[in-house]
Amino acid sequence: MVITPESRGPDGFYDSYAGADVFEVWADVARRYRLDPDWTVITGYSMGGLGTFKLAEQFPDLFAKAQPTVGFSGDDNLVASLRNIPFLMWNSLVDELVPPTDYIPTAEKFDSLGYRYELDVFTPSEHLTLAINDQFAPAAAFLDLVKVNRNPAHVTYVVDPTLDYPALGFVADHAYWLSGIKLRSATPPVTGGHAQGSIDALSYGFGTGDPTPSDTQFGTGTLTGGNLPTPLVFTRQFRTWGPVPSIPRLRRIDLAARNITAVTINVRRANVGCGVDLHVDTDGPMTIELAGCGRTIAAGGGA
Predict the structure, then answer these.
(1) Can you tell me the distance from the alpha carbon of 246 to that of 153, in angstroms, rounded to the nearest whole number?
(2) Domain ranges in the chain?
(3) 154-159/197-203 β-pairing
(4) Contact (Cβ atoms closer than 8 angstroms) between residue 139 and residue 88
(5) Which residue would you say has higher pLDDT here, 190 or 83?
(6) What are 96's strand-pairing partners?
(7) pLDDT digit string (tens) for 181-233?
(8) Which CATH code fits 36-148+211-239?
(9) pLDDT tens by residue, 258-274
């Protein structure tokens, strides 16, 4: 089942009504067909490529994998939220609308975080070349047969309330087993940009640690079988993950928060229980509510 929202409005870039439109269309399809949300991936071309990043960054627990074509992240700070979503980026070397100065920093952010990603840069190719060629079999193969990881052991999330539209039911303040994430300060940084907060939580309840990322790898490839008379050559840059290591299973969560005043932890989904041992690193006062436990923890000097 392929759902293609039109992102209501002219060039809305999946913000405001244009973003809410995605979920309205998705809900309408779900009313008419039996969907299994565990098998959900996201992809898009051009503005849809930017939307692929934006929606996956704001709502990472909805998607198993992502494949943007001639897109990039509108805010590379938000790439940190993509810890549990492998990305395959297809971009063009001579793109008049999405040049390398847009997408290279996004790939470098993935790389610096040690996340799973691949950047394929096609040449000679401009903004519409991949659409005209119309050969997306490798992208489809990348997205195929993978389920959403609803409860990963390690969650990283960046919250940016300026991207929320509560009146439309479009609020990104939750990811996986963390919810109700609120900023302590809404003052934008002096260096510019939006007021944001970040939270990183590792649950020992699953008995699994972080896989070791591979070194950054490079290669080349050829895309054949499209409408164009000659195949498209591309360069590859990517990182993968090694096996998931086992660690001692404990009722413990390590949590690091920056500019966060409140968060709720679903201890059942985090696989730790109400007696969880919390190790908190915060840059200011915050409250941590344990859902269903009747227990609230004050950290960072009280709240």
Answers:
(1) 11
(2) 36-148+211-239, 154-207+247-299
(3) antiparallel
(4) yes
(5) 83
(6) none
(7) 999 999 998 888 889 999 999 999 999 999 999 999 999 999 999 999 999 99
(8) 3.40.50.1820
(9) 999 999 999 999 999 99
Q: What is the tens place of the pLDDT at every residue in 31-80?
A: 999 999 999 999 999 999 999 999 999 999 999 999 999 999 999 999 99
Q: Could you give the CA distance from residue 264 to residue 175 in angstroms, rounded to a whole number? A: 11
Higher pLDDT, 11 or 250: 250
Of 77, 65, 253, which is closest to residue 154 (Cα–Cα)? 253
pLDDT tens track for 158-179: 999 999 999 999 999 999 999 9
Q: Which residues pair with 237 in a beta bridge?
A: 119, 218
Distance CA(107)–CA(105), nearest Å, equals 5
Who contacts 143 (Cβ-Cβ below 8 Å, separation ≥6)?
Answer: 41, 43, 65, 67, 88
Give mean pLDDT, residues 282-294: 97
Q: Tokens in use for 200?
A: 């990183």
For residue 111, give both structure tokens: 């790389």
User: Rounded to a whole number, what is the largest CA-CA distance in the chain?
Assistant: 67
Q: How far apart are CA 266 and CA 276, in angstroms?
A: 11
